[in-house]
Amino acid sequence: MTARVRRRTILAFLGPAVTALAAVGILPLGYAVWKSLHDFNLTRIARQKFVGLDNYVAVLGDPVFWAAVGRTAMLFVIAVPIQIALGLMIALVLHRPGLGFWKTLTRLSLVLPMATTYAVVGLLAQVMLNQKYGVVNQMLGWIGIDPINFIGDPTNAFIAVVLWDIWQWTPFVALVLLAGLSTVPPEIEEAARLETKSGWTILRHVQLPFLVPSLVAVLILRTADTLKLFDMPFTMTRGGPGSATEFIAVLIERVGNRQFDIGMAAAQSIIMLAITIVLARLYIRLFYREVR
């Protein structure tokens, strides 16, 4: 095969993938960057003008934006460590020999929350947490607890979003960590179990080094998911009551789709993309130093 034929073959295989990537990723990103540099409001579309970095300066100086970032960060700080802790416990249980049919059934059941879309999860939560007719308040009534206003109270609404996020994504974390545990050489693990009965010692010195790539992947993916979390809190609370569950993606939707300020919403989106990239790089540098 000549060099020219080889190049053509490579282009023939890579061409469709590169074209699709450009169509669904690079071009929309470029368009968003371009619009973020304009005063572009749909209520006065004929008057859009180039303003440079003015939108970015306005976003960085906007207390509403930083309040939404703070709520998003709080959701991440509370939910993700709990997801990792619960997911690790589930993964360790499923990794041990035995259980047979129950292990297979548990693995299959873990897929169900992930297969449920964010919007459906939000609607399910809205129905289950209804103060008058929700099944959660009915169950609380059985043990003598008065109905709780989960959706209408700011603190309760935020807690409900956190709990629902934990329910939906703990199985994902468990499956990723279970895959990481499967990379531990069986002979090393068996030798460690002969040396000590301490599960913590085995986890710390034998299993954890093999789990580092999985933990980095979980942190990166859950960070990106949290920063773009929109469907579930929007369908559940519409970002309320007040702004209690107006996370950054919900704020961007409000600015872009309800205030029609596309330039400002684009600038907010680009800033959050930059934050995601910086955090992903930070995770890799801190937890997975072999990656360069």
Describe, in plain words, how this protein is organized in 3D.
The chain has a single domain (54-287), classed as Orthogonal Bundle (MetI-like fold), CATH 1.10.3720. The protein has a two-stranded antiparallel sheet with strand order 1-2. By secondary structure, it is an all-alpha fold. The chain has helices at 3-36, 54-60, 63-95, 101-115, 118-128, 135-142, 154-181, 186-195, 199-227, 231-237, 248-258, 262-287; strands spanning 38-39, 49-50. It has 12 helices and 2 strands, in the order H-E-E-H-H-H-H-H-H-H-H-H-H-H. The radius of gyration is 24 Å and the shape is globular. The chain starts with a helix and ends in a 5-residue tail after the last helix. Helix 4 (101-115) packs across helix 7 (154-181).
Helix content: over 70%
Multimerization status? single chain
Which sheet architecture does the biggest sheet show? 2 strands, antiparallel
**Which strands sit side by side, in order, in the main sheet?**
1-2
Total beta-strand segments: 2
Give the low-pLDDT segments.
none
Main location: membrane
Subcellular location: Cell membrane
InterPro entries: MetI-like (IPR000515), MetI-like_sf (IPR035906)
Protein name: Carbohydrate ABC transporter membrane protein 1, CUT1 family
